[in-house]
Amino acid sequence: MTATPSPSFVTLVRTYGTYAGAMMARGLELVGKLGLYMLGARALGVHDSGYFFLCLTVVGVLATVSRGGFERAVVRHLAAELAVGKGRAAGHAFLVGLGAVLGLGLAVTALTAAFAQPLADYVFRDPEAARPLLLSTFVILPQAACYFIGNALLGLHKGAAGQLVQNGLWPVLTLAAVVAGVTSLDGLLYALAGANVAATVVGAVLLFRERHRFVDTHTDTPPGAPGAAPLPALWRTAAPLSVVEIVQILLPSLPVLLLATFGLPAQVGAFSVANRISMLVWVVSTSIGSVAAPSFAARHRQGQWTELRQLNRRVRLAVAVFGTPVVAVMVLAPAQVLHLVGPGFEIAATALVILGVGQLVYCLLPCQEIVLAMAGHGSVLRWLTLAQTVVCGALCVLLIPPFGMIGAAIATAVFAAQLAIGASLMVRRLMPQAF
Fold this sequence. Notes:
Keywords: Cell membrane, Membrane, Transmembrane, Transmembrane helix
Oligomer: single chain
Mean pLDDT: 86
Distance between the termini: 38 Å
Subcellular location: Cell membrane
Pfam families: Polysacc_synt
Largest sheet: none
Number of domains: 1
Organism: Xanthobacter autotrophicus
Membrane topology: Multi-pass membrane protein
Structural class: mainly alpha
Radius of gyration: 21 Å
């Protein structure tokens, strides 16, 4: 007689299979980004690669501002509403969020184009940065829309598709342009914009195929569960999360921006490469956490605390298993890793070790900020990230002018560890049954 696998074993296999699918999509991102950073940096040289990474930083910040927290809010609203059979409310939340992101994206793009030259002259003290900054405005709206649609797919429990759209396609497509012969700074920025447009179109097609899910169905909700009450308006969920998202994209960018002000383009380029290599651990964590996010929201809405706790523990274990080897490589062989990018980037080896230590702390206490966001504790998460801002800003001002890349690395490592520790403590305090 053949033994039947237990439900818990089947659930475990299915869960980690889902994570593996998302990891494959993020693996495509890693290939694309590492290839883009290595080949792009090699083709541009240390000087022009500084401008390229500066533009990537500026675009990342401004695209995040354009999303206004609606991309994180739509994950919660779609997953939670569908979990209790409110498909029409989920569809309405998606349309409201999409309209807000498109409107904000157009406004931010126009303002950035208007102030490109003053930014170059007075903030970065380099008039030659004006043209790259102007060209980077073509990327802002497509990247904001790409991320929003990718998160909407995540809210529909389409983890691999969502990761592919928002993270996997555009780096690979941009890398393909480099391989095809696009090696100038202007050409790379145009290719980056086109790649984000293409990823947005793919995501829109995938979402259109799921339109049948936005209808109401009957689902029993336990009395007293969070699902018995209606969710707040989408903008109320997005408001605190907008602060969180802006801080989370600005904080990694702040050391780069200050280093660009006080340092040389070569230092900016080398530290940017080291910083992005170290954030591979964050990529692993967010890929797994993003797949789990809609399940966090659904379990919380349905009042399934035991299942939520089990899911949270599986997520933490998965991140530790996937992320710890990545940290080990960057800490034990930093110069060798940076040499793969190109000659001259080894000057950031010490910085990479420091960055790796900060990512290790996050790797061991991952994804608790996602649990807070999906359970409706966005205001708590906002205060945690504002505390990060104060600490990171103070460290950047104190350490970057005298110590350059080392100071930037210390500030970056501290804020990464700070969020992991703070979010874990708040989950244990607010929802001990979920930790």
